Amino acid sequence: MIILVKIRDLYKKYESYSVLRGLNMNVGRGDVYGFLGRNGCGKSTTMNIITNIIPKDGGEIVIGGGENVKIGYLPESPVIYGYMTAREYLEYIAACCNIDGDIAKRVDEVLEIVGLTKAADRRAKGYSRGMTQRLGMGAAIIGKPELLLFDEPTSALDPEGRAEVIEIIGRLKSTGCTIVLSTHILSDVERVADHIGIINNGIIAEEGRLDDILKKYSGAAVRVKLNRLDEELRARLLSVDFARAEFSEGDGTFRFIADDPGECSRRLIRLLADCGASVNSLSTQTASLEEVFRKVVG
To answer: Which of 126, 221, 227, 297 shows the greatest Cβ crowding within 10 Å of its Cβ?
Structure first.
């Protein structure tokens, strides 16, 4: 992995409260990095320090190995001038950022990316929350940044609005843009993230590839439900030596947790066949990010 953003020993204090307490973070070039944590844990503070909106109290941030890297930033609640249309607002942002080239063409491209072409000449004050958020994303990407920081982009959106925003992030990812996605909506992260970092008590408590972290904390579970179950078969299944077995009295389902779910499934099928068991269902279930998050942050 080629590192685009490297943070070492980042500290920030507000009066007597230490928000960041030696945070270390690595964001790979071209990745979507899911930056996770409870509300108020320091995600926005970290992004504001990266963008120089607020100063740090200590530590080092290196972006692009010291080269100049364009950054686009979407705050949690972007403020849009309601009297402007989307087209006027993006032209205004482009002028503020001294963007070279054909600005009108670039604005049309951005409107298409964020799905606002049909609403381009409507005043922003009549936009829904989702449309406003997408216009904010357009402002963040107008200058073709290499690094995008999105702070809670799906917060307070309805399911349709969230889906639209996540789809845009997926499109931006396909262009090779690096995205830091700060959110507490874990299902959104599971859909688009390559790597994640979970902040807790002012530090990154867990970081790595999403798939690797899911496996690290829970492995994978093979779920089995039988049509008939006696005490002898139950005892035998709970004592297998190739997985950690659990049984739910509520729904009568066995759960076998193993590092290799494929091999676990094969051995279970052989065992059940030898026992003459009547199987209702057998499926593999990977750990959810919610389960991992709860274990990391307590």
So the answer is: 221
For the chain, percent of residues with pLDDT exceeding 70: 99
Cα–Cα nearest to 6, from 67, 53, 57, 54: 67
Res 219 pLDDT > 80 = no
**What local confidence, expressed as pLDDT, does residue 284 receive?**
80
Report the predicted TM-score, pTM, of the whole model to 2 decimal places. Answer: 0.81
